[in-house]
Amino acid sequence: MLRHLYRRARHYALGGRYTLQMSGIIIPIVDQRSQRGLAIPSLTRPLAGGTLADTRGRQIRDLRISVTDRCNFRCTYCMPKEVFDSNYPYLPHNEVLTFEEITRVARIAVGLGVKKIRLTGGEPLMRRGIEDLVGMLATIDGIDLTLTTNGSALKAKAVQLKAAGLDRLTVSLDSLDDATFRAMNDVDFPVAKVLEAIDAANAAGFEQVKINMVVKRGVNDHQIVDMARYFRNGKNIVRFIEFMDVGSTNGWRMDDVIASREVVERINAVFPCAPANPNHVGEVAKRWKYQDAGGASAGEFGVISSVTEAFCGTCTRARLSTDGSIYTCLFAQKGYDIKSMLRSGVDEADDDAIAAALGGIWQQRRDNYSETRTAETAKERKVEMSFIGG
Fold first, then answer.
1. Do residues 233 and 298 lie in contact, with contact meaning Cβ atoms separated by under 8 Å?
2. Cα-only R_g, the chain
3. Alpha-carbon dihedral 241, 247, 253, 256, rounded to 10 degrees
4. Which domain holds residue 57?
5. What's the structural domain count of the chain?
6. What is the DSSP string of 5-56?
């Protein structure tokens, strides 16, 4: 685990950069918040008809919005406590986008073709008044409004979120084994409370909750079949995610990756399953349906294969970071500063300038990191997932 790797590690601020020092070796960790944003490109063609395509013809469809860079978990693959400790300098309140600013960007993005908005973090339920933001976004016509949470505060918030207009929920749950789950979240949070939160969400009207399990070899892969068994006959759907080299702090190695095909093989050996068609273009999870003796479906699960079966060619996601930058790839190194435009006095009655900025960014997008991933690219300094959402 990462904790063992960095047992004697310490991190400190140095010239706007965070570092890990271990046995005399300094590993630089980029603090993207101190980096100047990329220059916003001009439109290459006029905006028209609510469709916006990049250089590969990929249309924008999804906007993921990180509402906070804070989280109460210290998952070893996302926010290891050796880096994100009590001294870590989170964004000050005035640097975080307001609910009004988030809603403004979202409304403009929907006008450019976005159909789905996902609220992420950090842990989005740590943002005070998150249900108010949900209510504001729910007034935008024609969107699928979703949220991803670690579940720690969901039991108390589920009814409010549903009443505010949230359509769907995803809960991160990396193991049903309590000892494994506590070790992975690294704050000793019990798995039983997350399962209670999922039940509470179902009772509040979220009929189908998606469960995300990041699978890491030798850490929680022994839980694959148990997770499939637990959720097999219910409406909730578990999705198994390959361990990815997001950010620069999770100690990623290819040897730790369990390929999705192996996940399917393990499940199929116990519960026969068959591939199912995607729900929509650009869906990242490949769907598999369980088959009973007569061939009828008894439920389904999904696999997300960013490492071994890259889906860059159909990626439709843009990300709005906590501090108001647009990122066009989960593995990006820098983003495009939109917050400066929001706070520069651009009249809310005329959002053409911001729409043109978003349009120019997307039209010139050419990201394909997962198609070109190597051991060397995995070492590149990238924005942390907790800052732009998963």
1. yes
2. 20
3. -30
4. 2-388
5. 1
6. HTTT-EEEEETTEEEEEETTEEEEEE-GGGSPPPPPPPPSS--BTTB-B-TT
pLDDT tens per residue across span 235-291: 999 999 998 766 565 666 778 899 999 999 999 999 999 999 988 777 889 999 999
pTM: 0.87
Residues 115-154 have pLDDT tens digits of 999 999 999 999 999 999 999 999 999 999 999 999 999 9
Residue range 342-371: mean pLDDT, rounded:
86
Kindly state the tokens that stand for 275: 């591939």
Both structure tokens of 304: 């997300």
Residues forming a β-bridge with 15: none
> CA distances (Å), 319 to each of 54, 61, 330, 336, in order?
15, 11, 8, 10
CA–CA distance, 173 with 227 (Å, rounded to integer)? 9
Q: What is the mean pLDDT of residues 160-179?
A: 98
- Bridging pattern class, strands 210-215 and 168-172: parallel
The domain that holds 214 is classified in CATH as 3.20.20.70
